[in-house]
# Entry
Amino acid sequence: MYIPNETRYNEIKYNRCGRSGLQLPVISLGLWHNFGGIDNLENSRAMVRRAFDLGITHFDLANNYGPPPGSAEETMGYILRHDLASYRDELIISSKAGYEMWAGPYGDKGSRKYLIASLDQSLRRMGIEYVDIFYHHRPDTETPLEETMGVLDDIVRSGKAIYAGISNYSAEQTQEAERILKSMGRHCVIHQPKYNMFNRWIEDGLLDVLREEGIGCIVFSPLAQGLLTDKYLDGIPANSRAAKPSGFLRREQVTSEVVSKVHRLNDMAKSRGQTLAQMSLAWVLRHKEVTSALIGASTILQIEEAVDAQEKAAFTGEELKKIDDILAGK
Ligand SMILES: NC(=O)c1ccc[n+]([C@@H]2O[C@H](COP(=O)([O-])OP(=O)(O)OC[C@H]3O[C@@H](n4cnc5c(N)ncnc54)[C@H](OP(=O)(O)O)[C@@H]3O)[C@@H](O)[C@H]2O)c1
# Structure
């Protein structure tokens, strides 16, 4: 029987999610890769348990995570049933809908029909009565935003989700979504954008909107799917995401230009006394608007390494300039 680490709440820092009552661990665990039906269930289970032992209370899912789509939620359901059933009130479980999930016009995008049906499926797969955060996974310019935000509001009112969030919305779309939600007496509690050293789009307006509107921010792929670690310094290892047919990181993305920057970043991380993964996490978390860094993992060690990033979180102005220079190829 699994008995969680009694000191888990001393292991990690919690940040307030925008202007809300919700606090999230500074590192959250996503189940996009390595938790699907094709993966080793006992490894997935061990990672979730270790994460919880380290104070990681937040597990991020979506309807389509797998492969096959839906199977990561089934894995989470299995772990909840076997290990975490009595800890439901200590967990923040999120899910999303917005990408294609089933055939036909009702299994994709942002309609009321799709979002309600998808959340019901997610709850069944995980065997839970509610999710803590339900996100619209990506903007849908064909469905009126009033409809999509209206369904997020209704889902929270129905009790099937506690908080509403959006993902991959631009700064302008976020402002508009929050305006509509506010008119219904609802607040968008969290935004989930991609953010890492190789993809800095949120610095160009989104972070300002999130700060002004009091919306929390959980950034996904902070390690650029593993590129911003020491994993690819000497080629593409067989056990890596880039080598797997089911991985979203493609071999072609591991270019010599990227690897040469990663070498320089890796040297800099060493001189700071941490690993490149840890420096990359500290770097995304340097903004006060960023509530949590949402990592993926294939091993327990990777999760432990991420949590240890807290130990050296601060950067000098000189260090930040050096990172900018490396990224710019200077
Ligand atoms: N909202 C959205 O549209 C969206 C999109 C994508 C992701 N997400 C969410 O964000 C989560 C994280 O995304 P991500 O998996 O791309 O995040 P990531 O943290 O950038 O990449 C995780 C991968 O990096 C490698 N890695 C992690 N720590 C490492 C270490 N210390 N040393 C060497 N390699 C390490 C592992 O790959 P290996 O398998 O190679 O070991 C791991 O699976 C997802 O699970 C999902 O919940 C959301």
The mean pLDDT is 98. DSSP finds ten helices and ten strands in the chain.
